[in-house]
Amino acid sequence: MPTIEDNLRLWNEEFDWSRQGEEWSSGWGGSEAQWYGTLFPRMHAFLPAHCILEIAPGYGRWTQMLKGHCEKLAVVDLADSCIEACKKRFHKDTHITYHVNDGKSLAMIEDTTIDFVFSFDSLVHAEKDVVQTYLAQLARKLTPNGVGFIHHSNIGMYVDPSTGELPCFLPNDHGRATSMTARRFKEFCSAVGLQCMAQELVNWGANAALIDCLSLFTPRNSVWARPNRIFINAGFMNEASYLRKVMTLYTCQSHVRADRQQLGAERRDT
After folding, report:
1. pTM for this one?
2. Fewer CB under 10 Å: which end of the chain, C or N?
């Protein structure tokens, strides 16, 4: 069970961020393929949004996508090194604000100001106490019709309640939070006046187990509110494999892209 201290030490001190987290998108053929092929289609109905909150941006792999879909973007991370990296990376984007928190608090975000909250590939490492605390605060931070899209762990559904252990066939190679499940996320939402609208249970990596969940939620009286729909998607990684193959046909090599970007910059300067 990774604690806040464990996560802070890993992401702030131990992890090699030289690839800015892009290695986690390699299964899709890169972050652009993952965004446009997997993430954006699941969220496009709620974007653009006036004010977006991103929780745990890391080095900005998704920040680079979100920043073009809002007038204001707030990013919050417990690792100050990640926030400093984002400040440097997006220094030209004046509509972004940056915050270091304690791994739980959103006190720096004004109530009823967030139209869309997003977190992907980060809170899968957050145990139930962290997720519960975030949701209790998001119930206040979201606007009346605000929406949240959060990727979290579901590996807890495989934990043996009598031993507290995962079965031997399911090693926790990806460091998922063993106390989190999709059902628990829905219960946390209900307790604070939020409504889960959709939960997609997905596999990750080579294992077919549904260790993750993509949860979509909104305030209970929101125009978006509806009874929760659950989709079991054991082929999620097949989607990634398909996108990776397709992207090899339609994306240019990195040096070609760099040359084209330089050419575009030179044209704008003339």
Report:
1. 0.90
2. C
81-110 pLDDT tens trace: 999 999 999 999 999 999 999 999 999 999
Strands (E), the chain: 49-55, 70-77, 96-100, 114-119, 142-153, 194-204, 207-219, 229-233
In a domain, 173, yes or no: yes
Residue 113 lies in a domain: yes
At 58, list the tokens. 């890391």
> Quick one: which H or E segment has residue 89?
helix 80-89
Count of structural domains, the chain:
1
CATH number at residue 128: 3.40.50.150
Q: What is the rounded distance in angstroms from the CA atom of residue 127 to the CA atom of residue 118?
A: 17
Q: How far apart are CA 10 and CA 12, in angstroms?
A: 6
Structural domain boundaries enclosing 164:
4-241
Q: In whole angstroms, what is the distance from residue 16 CA to residue 12 CA? A: 9
